[in-house]
C-alpha cells in the first residue's frame, strides 16, 4: 500500500506547490473502482477539493485545465480518473 500512499503524497505536494491552496483534500477512491477496466493499469481514481486564490475570476473549465496541467505528469500512469471541485476563496464555506 506504500505505492498508493506515495502517489497520494505526490499529487498533494504538486497541487500545494502550484496553487498554494487555502484548503486541499485529496481522496484516493481507487478501492471503490476495483475491477473497473481502467483500474487494471494500476492508475488510481482520485477526488480533489481545492480552494485557491488562483481560481478567482477564472471559469470552471479553465480551473479544471489548470489542475490537469499541474498534474499532467501523473495523468495516465498515476491517475486514471480525477473528480475535482475547484473554488475561489469567496466561494468556499469551509
Structure description:
It is a single chain. With 94 residues, the protein is α+β, with helices and mostly antiparallel strands. The protein has a single domain (2-91), classed as BolA-like (GMP Synthetase, Chain A, domain 3), CATH 3.30.300. It is 31% helix and 24% strand. It is built from two helices and three strands. The chain has helices at 2-19, 60-70; strands at residues 23-28, 44-51, 79-87. Strands 1-2-3 form a three-stranded mixed β-sheet. The protein is globular. The relative contact order is 0.23. The model has no long low-confidence stretch (mean pLDDT 85).
Blueprint (SSEs and pairs):
Layout: H1 2-19, E1 23-28, E2 44-51, H2 60-70, E3 79-87
Parallel strand pairs: 2-3
Antiparallel strand pairs: 1-2
Low-confidence stretches: none
How many structural domains are formed by the residues?
1
- How far the N terminus sits from the C terminus, by CA atoms, comes to 30 Å
The class by helix and strand makeup works out as alpha+beta
Q: Which range best describes the helical content: under 10%, 10-25%, 25-40%, 40-55%, 55-70% or over 70%?
A: 25-40%
What is the global morphology? globular
Note the beta-strand portion: 15-25%
Largest sheet: 3 strands, mixed
Placed side by side, the strands forming the largest sheet appear as: 1-2-3
In CATH, the architecture is 2-Layer Sandwich
What fold name goes in the CATH topology slot?
GMP Synthetase, Chain A, domain 3
Give me the number of helical elements: 2
Q: H/E order of the elements?
A: HEEHE
Mean pLDDT score: 85
CATH homologous superfamily grouping: BolA-like
- The radius of gyration computed from the alpha-carbon positions, rounded to a whole number of angstroms, is 13 Å
CATH class equals Alpha Beta
The total strand number stands at 3
Amino acid at each position: 500500500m506504500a505505492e498508493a500512499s506515495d502517489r497520494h503524497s505526490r499529487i498533494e505536494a504538486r497541487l500545494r506547490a502550484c496553487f498554494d491552496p487555502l484548503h486541499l483534500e485529496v481522496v484516493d477512491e481507487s478501492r471503490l473502482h476495483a475491477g473497473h477496466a481502467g483500474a487494471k493499469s494500476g492508475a488510481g481514481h482520485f477526488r480533489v477539493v481545492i480552494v485557491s486564490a488562483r481560481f478567482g475570476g477564472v471559469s470552471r473549465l479553465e480551473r479544471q485545465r489548470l489542475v490537469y496541467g499541474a498534474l499532467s505528469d501523473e495523468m495516465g500512469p498515476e491517475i486514471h480518473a480525477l473528480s475535482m471541485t475547484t473554488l475561489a476563496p469567496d466561494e468556499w464555506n469551509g
